[in-house]
Amino acid sequence: MSGQENISESVQADFLKKNTEYAATFRDGDLPLPPARHALVLACMDARLHVEKVLGIKNGECHCVRNAGGRASDDALRSIAISQRLLGTKEVHIIHHTDCGMLTFTNQQLATKIREDLGVDVGDRDFLPFLDLRESVLDDIRTIRESPLVATGTKVHGYIYEVETGKLKVVE
Amino acid sequence: MSGQENISESVQADFLKKNTEYAATFRDGDLPLPPARHALVLACMDARLHVEKVLGIKNGECHCVRNAGGRASDDALRSIAISQRLLGTKEVHIIHHTDCGMLTFTNQQLATKIREDLGVDVGDRDFLPFLDLRESVLDDIRTIRESPLVATGTKVHGYIYEVETGKLKVVE
Ligand SMILES: [Zn+2]
Ligand SMILES: [Zn+2]
């Protein structure tokens, strides 16, 4: 057995151990499927942004969509459409953050790294990096507001989370 | 001002109030960008699945990607590729869950609802619903393992989370 397998099994073992502790005091088994606050949060996958904790969201309150950057990707729009049409959410809160990995590369650089590491040519695929945090939030607000999959008049709010301070700043 | 605007502003006001409390005791300002546990979790956006809490993940430990269903969508593969190539994660943990909204509709039904509600024709777009929870986890494990964007030999684990009990079950 390789060292990598040991590491991986140890993460799984830890998840299962911690989950046993979580389930032991679990009392939320009767929460309904639709989010109680009728809201969806779209945030970066960053390991330092525990969305529910940072925003004080309780169990069952908000949908939470996350991807590299917290971008309004086509798949995020799929999730928002399902959330709105089938589960009654009415607003979107977008969170990007300081020290984001998406500020550190260009599509061309990542394509080169993927070719070198994996031997795969990704062509001109857009991995959705950005150069400016505030602009990326504003771009994604606009993308969601203008998407035909999103209900007209949906409130879309944008924020920057500071990983250095734990503070959330509204982007206006 | 409409009632809807009031509701939306109240969610934002609550997020900012709760975040002020969070930031007041924040002590993690020096965490590095790469996830400490070298792992990425891919889970459903469901409001009852607070991933870090359910798995006992600490700040800075794991990337967390979420979408409708926790599916291995093309955009999830984008996030995984960035996570692996630029930020050193080595394994993926996929979490689907009981009572998932993705079990409640077909593409055709959602297309009809979008046409009726929004006046938009989505054609034969796949919103990635599923009929069987265990099969959907196995499908997504396979999709990730076989993706050219994912490093060969990446460990991919699958789970079903029970929203009724708080328990995580391994899919094998
Ligand atoms: Zn980020
Ligand atoms: Zn779900």
From TrEMBL, chains A, B:
Catalyzed chemical reaction(s)? hydrogencarbonate + H(+) = CO2 + H2O
Per the UniProt entry, the Enzyme Commission number(s) are 4.2.1.1
One Pfam family, short name? Pro_CA
Q: Which CDD domains match?
A: beta_CA_cladeD (cd03379)
InterPro entries, sorted? Carbonic_anhydrase, Carbonic_anhydrase_sf
Domain of life of the organism encoding this protein: Eukaryota
Needs which cofactor?
Zn(2+)
Q: Which residues cross the membrane?
A: none
The entry's keywords: Lyase, Metal-binding, Zinc
What does this gene product do?
Reversible hydration of carbon dioxide.
Q: What is this protein called?
A: Carbonic anhydrase
Taxonomic source organism? Volvox africanus
